[in-house]
Write a structure and sequence with these properties.
This protein is α+β, with helices and mostly antiparallel strands. It has 8 helices and 8 strands; from the N terminus they run αβββββββααααβααα. A 3-stranded antiparallel beta sheet has the order 3-2-5. Strands 6-7-8 form a 3-stranded antiparallel beta sheet. Strands 1-4 form a two-stranded antiparallel ribbon. It is rod-shaped and about 150 Å long.
Length: 265
Amino acid sequence: MLGIQLEGFLTGGTIAIGILILWALSCIKVINEYERGVVFTLGRLRPQPLAPGIRLVIVPFQRMVRVSLRTVAMDVAPQDVITRDNVTVKVNAVVYFRVLDANKAIVEVENYLYATSQLAQTTLRSVLGEVELDDLLSKREQLNARLAEILDRHTDPWGIKVSMVEIKAVDLPQEMVRAISKQAEAEREKRAKIIHADGELLAAAKLTEAAAQLATEPLSIQLRYLQTLLEIGVERNTTIIFPLPIELLGLFGRSMAARMPSSSD
């Protein structure tokens, strides 16, 4: 009878020791280098989160919530935005942020990831709705900086630091794409005509200088004629062009006019 009682005591002690070992193991927590442990003791927040390493959390009197301090790249779902000039576009972006204060990230907001995502969506719509389409397409850097500044200011009470916001893509309606293409084509034609006109102006100025230079020496124009004939001969053309001075044509025209009888005769 005594042996049975002793055996039962040993069995109960073994079970108790096993439960105690399991409880001790459940109290041992390993925190990674990029994590912090937010601890609640009987519902009260511990002033400082647990640092990386092996830490002891007394269960069930204490509860620990792990918070990652790594930078999070959050994709903002495409948003339908009406710009200031009443153009409907679909815009998506990506937000880069990280947790600086683990205690605030858990205590000040219920779910900091979801809250940051919703805030990024509403901020994207409100900010881009205040700009025109041309600014949305050409001033990406300024808009990104403005979005990052607004998000960082609103998430600072949550212990979150927004480092960067990037607008990924702007989807335009097909009608607007065709209109922008026509506008770009017209702009390029305008530039081409301006460049051509500038070239004509420069060419006219150079021709004027060349004419003034040739006028200083009458024989230089004859040398130019001979050089032109030489260039034509090198190309082995069957047609030879003899340049005729304009002065001769003018002289011929005046002589013909003098020979014609006047209307009074």
